[in-house]
């Protein structure tokens, strides 16, 4: 029996450093038979105890993943915050950023809407002349239907 076990060990684990012996067909069929039996036993056990052998490991993996991913996500956002930060006036001058009319200030995006109070918005809308307007059609591309009925 010892010779049979020794012949299946890789060369580095054998004391005599003899070349490895190849498996014969009986050994291969025996290996596959053992694997099939193991799979069938697992299937029967899962059907007998589905929560214990399938549900509990699944829930455990989900909970463990949440504990692992929470610090990973926090690290991601901390690294992002380190890269993106506000420029002060000295750094802006060093980079050569200038505002409109050559002044030494950082200009903001004019399209960015700063929402004020409701009263402010009401008076802005009341100041506009909303009664005097004309509907104009957008010019269509060649071959595109314009939506008019003849």
From TrEMBL:
A Pfam family annotated for this UniProt entry: COX16
Transmembrane intervals: 28-48, 54-75
Keyword Zinc-finger: no
Keyword terms: Membrane, Mitochondrion, Mitochondrion inner membrane, Transmembrane, Transmembrane helix
Domain of life, per lineage: Eukaryota
Main localization, broad class: mitochondrion
Family affiliation: Belongs to the COX16 family.
Record-given protein name: Cytochrome c oxidase assembly protein COX16, mitochondrial
């Amino acid at each position: 029996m010892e010779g049979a076990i020794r012949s299946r060990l890789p060369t580095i684990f054998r004391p005599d450093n003899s070349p490895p012996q190849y498996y014969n067909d009986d050994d291969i069929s025996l290996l596959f038979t053992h694997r099939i039996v193991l799979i069938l036993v697992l299937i029967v056990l899962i059907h007998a105890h589905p929560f214990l052998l399938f549900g509990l490991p699944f829930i455990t993996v989900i909970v463990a993943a949440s504990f692992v991913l929470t610090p990973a996500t926090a690290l991601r956002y901390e690294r992002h915050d380190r890269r993106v930060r506000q420029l002060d006036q000295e750094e802006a001058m060093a980079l050569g950023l200038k505002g409109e009319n050559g002044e030494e200030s950082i200009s903001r995006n004019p399209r960015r809407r700063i929402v004020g109070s409701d009263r402010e918005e009401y008076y802005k809308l009341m100041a506009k002349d909303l009664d005097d307007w004309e509907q104009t059609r957008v010019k269509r591309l060649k071959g595109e239907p314009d939506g008019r009925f003849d």
